[in-house]
Design goal:
InterPro entries: 4Fe4S_Fe-S-bd (IPR017896), 4Fe4S_Fe_S_CS (IPR017900), Cyt_c_oxidase_cbb3_FixG (IPR014116), Electron_Trans/Redox (IPR051684), FixG_C (IPR032879), Helical_ferredxn (IPR009051), Ig-like_fold (IPR013783). This is Cytochrome c oxidase accessory protein CcoG. Keywords: 4Fe-4S, Electron transport, Iron, Iron-sulfur, Membrane, Metal-binding, Transmembrane, Transmembrane helix, Transport. Strands 8, 9, 10, 12 and 14 form a 5-stranded antiparallel beta sheet that branches. The protein has a 4-stranded antiparallel beta sheet with strand order 13-11-15-16, with no helix packed on it. Strands 3-4-5 form a 3-stranded antiparallel beta sheet, with no helix packed on it. It contains 15 helices and 16 strands. With about 475 residues, the chain is α+β, with helices and mostly antiparallel strands. The protein has 3 domains: about 40-60 and about 115-235, no CATH class; about 245-330, no CATH class; about 370-475, Immunoglobulin-like (Sandwich). Strand 4 and strand 5 form a beta hairpin. Helix 4 (about 125-140) crosses helix 8. The longest helix has 26 residues, at about 155-180.
Length: about 475
């Protein structure tokens, strides 16, 4: 056993720590983006499109229907009122259908037109642009805002910053009150909140969503789109070569560089220049701060701001518009775009089927539900006249928004005696607990248990045909 383990002499490595005197610690994990104001057809359309849905969001909870709030998603009462439709926890399948339809609609639109949901309809984008509008009105244009932030704090900077944040908080508070108003009566909410009479959960919800709106639209902004929102990560799975996205045409734009305005478009090739003058306006107007000339990036939200900015520059230079445009990879490479392709058709078919099933579910929905509970104290008892009696509790749920009368009947028992009310009235959205008894001569029973049926039918012309029945067991011995 003369084998020895070889030992290697390793000289310790001296660790050099960074000298703080030689570093200014200027690294920042996120540089603030100063979005430049842009004008153009897409920007005008995006503003009116966003304002339309913003108006819908603000107005809908104030609408009245049949003397009550038209849209009220009352979680405490476990009841959702949507105009003439009342949904209960038993109607959860309708909500599931709605989510599935929304998902496939998003897949369909993304496959066809890219990430336009983010650029034109996403609340994060809409509220971010609202906050940027207040910045422009209070602090000035992009260059003025940059210089204002570089200045030391003085009175002018203090009042501008203070006014901006006050405006942000007010917008966030109104947004939060409106949003919470979908889940609690909105007229009472506004009065009770500002008179300090609102309940704990109402006040907590209002301030919680106020903080979320203020933080997301005022401070986080593009971080929500690039790091938090999962849609930015899986959107590429729905893209193909024919998907319309905001794209830069490198064949036409390169080589980029400055040039005199008097240089004609026909003379660019002789100078080795493309149409891009390298003005960086496309970067300055981008809400996520990317350079679209670097190709498709997951940060791009397809808002089209760079399209308007580039078209404005092309117009001033007397160049053809469309250097940056909504186009596809196939079109940029000179191919023919296929509108009707298997993926898009598949999403459309599935979406149509889901919408059809959802409509059928809503139309065929019965606004009545019953539940029958046996008496737990005794399976049965014998009456003084020799009959066998079972005791039940019948729960009648009126799922409509109107008061309704119901007729109760039993079928399947020979010469059965019904003991209790056989005609009841239930308020809209209420549950009636009705104790009833059924007595039968034991000679008419075939065995230990006999299955029979309770039937509850609505009376009145407006509710003709509304009937629900449920089987239950009659127990003897």
């Amino acid at each position: 056993m003369n084998d020895q383990i070889p030992i290697k002499d390793v000289t310790p490595v001296k660790v050099h720590k960074p000298d703080p005197k030689k570093h200014d610690n200027s690294y920042r994990p996120r540089s603030q983006i100063y979005v430049r104001k842009v004008k153009g057809a897409l920007e005008t359309f995006r503003r009116f499109f966003g304002l339309f849905f913003l108006a819908m969001f603000a107005v809908l909870p104030w609408l009245q229907y049949n003397g009550q709030q038209a849209i009220l998603l009352d979680i405490g009462e476990q009841r959702f009122n949507i105009f003439g439709l009342t949904l209960w926890p038993q109607d959860l399948t309708l909500l599931a259908w709605l989510f599935i339809i929304s998902a496939f609609a998003l897949f369909f639109v993304t496959t066809f037109a890219g990430r336009v949901w983010c650029g034109f309809m996403c609340p994060q984008t809409t509220w971010t642009y609202i906050y940027i509008w207040f910045e422009e009105k209070i602090e000035g244009s992009r260059n003025k805002r940059i210089k204002l932030d570089e200045r030391k704090m003085d009175f002018d900077k203090f009042w501008r910053k203070s006014l901006k944040h006050i405006a942000w908080v007010m917008v966030a508070l109104l947004t939060s009150l409106t949003f919470v108003g979908y889940f609690t009566p909105i007229d009472a909410l506004f009065i009770e909140f500002f008179t300090f009479e609102a309940g704990f959960w109402a006040v907590f919800s209002v301030w919680f969503f106020t903080l979320c709106t203020y933080g997301n639209a005022g401070w986080m902004r593009e971080i929500m789109c690039t790091h938090i929102c999962p849609y930015a990560r899986f959107q590429a799975a729905m893209f193909d070569r024919d998907t319309l996205t905001v794209s830069y045409d490198p064949n036409r734009g390169e080589g980029r560089g400055p040039r005199p305005r008097k240089l004609k478009h026909e003379e660019l090739k002789d100078k080795g220049l493309g149409d891009c003058i390298d003005c960086y306006l496309c970067v300055q107007v981008c809400p996520t701060g990317i350079d679209i000339r670097n190709g498709l990036q997951y940060e791009c939200i397809n808002c089209g701001a760079c399209v308007d900015a580039c078209n404005g520059v092309m117009e001033k230079m007397n160049y053809p518009k469309g250097l940056i445009s909504y186009t596809s990879e196939t079109a940029l490479s000179g191919g023919k775009v296929k509108v009707f392709r298997p993926k898009l058709i598949g999403y459309a078919v599935v979406l149509a089927v889901m919408v059809g099933l959802f409509v059928y579910e809503v139309v065929s929905r019965v606004p009545l539900e019953i539940d029958i509970i046996r008496d737990r104290n005794a399976l049965y008892r014998e009456t003084s006249d020799g009959l066998i009696e079972n005791v039940y509790t019948l729960k009648v749920l009126n799922k409509s928004q109107h008061t309704q009368s119901y007729l109760i009947q039993i079928d399947g028992l020979t010469d059965a005696r019904y003991i209790g009310e056989n005609q009841v009235t239930v308020e809209g959205g209420e549950v009636l607990n009705l104790p009833i008894s059924v007595a039968v001569d034991p000679y008419n029973l075939d065995g230990m248990t006999t299955v029979f049926r309770f039937s509850v039918s609505a009376t009145g012309d407006a509710s003709e045909g509304v009937m629900v029945s449920e089987e239950v067991k009659f127990i003897y011995r």
